[in-house]
Design a protein that fits this description.
The chain contains three helices and seven strands. The chain has helices at 4-11, 61-83, 108-123; strands at residues 29-32, 35-38, 44-45, 48-49, 89-100, 130-136, 145-153. The strands form two sheets. Strands 1-2-7-5-6 form a five-stranded mixed beta sheet, with helices on one face. Strands 3-4 form a two-stranded antiparallel sheet. Strand 5 (89-100), helix 3 and strand 6 (130-136) form a beta-alpha-beta unit. The chain is globular and about 45 Å long.
Amino acid sequence: MAGAVEAKLAELGLALPDVVPPLASYQPAVQSGVYVYTSGQLPMVGGTLAVTGKVGAEVTADEAKELARTCALNALAAVKSVAGDLDRIARVVKVVGFVASATDFTGQPGVVNGASELLGAVLGDKGVHARSAVGVAVLPLDAPVEVEVQVELVDA
């Protein structure tokens, strides 16, 4: 049975995807004490990275913002895989967004807003977090965006 967080996702027209399988030797998420740390989540949909390239060149900032939203949805799936229930989220503590950027692109914060806005829409005040938005030369699979999330849990 879906909890309140997944009901909110459905209300927004979204569904929690399957956890994206690791591309290398790591876990999609791990729990340490009351915290869950996700690995960097790419904007995979159905096992496929639909868009590749640098933001500000092959990918527009608006496209990248939507991709960051997809990354955040994938991060929630990874959190659920170890927490068991997204309703256990007490708060999102930190979001780190990496944006594969053309050399003159400086709009990384706007891109990562896609992830932050999704978490806020789904979790309300529990989705308010600290954040970093970093421009990088290249990401795995030539993805435009990668997002990692840290959440604090309440006891089951």
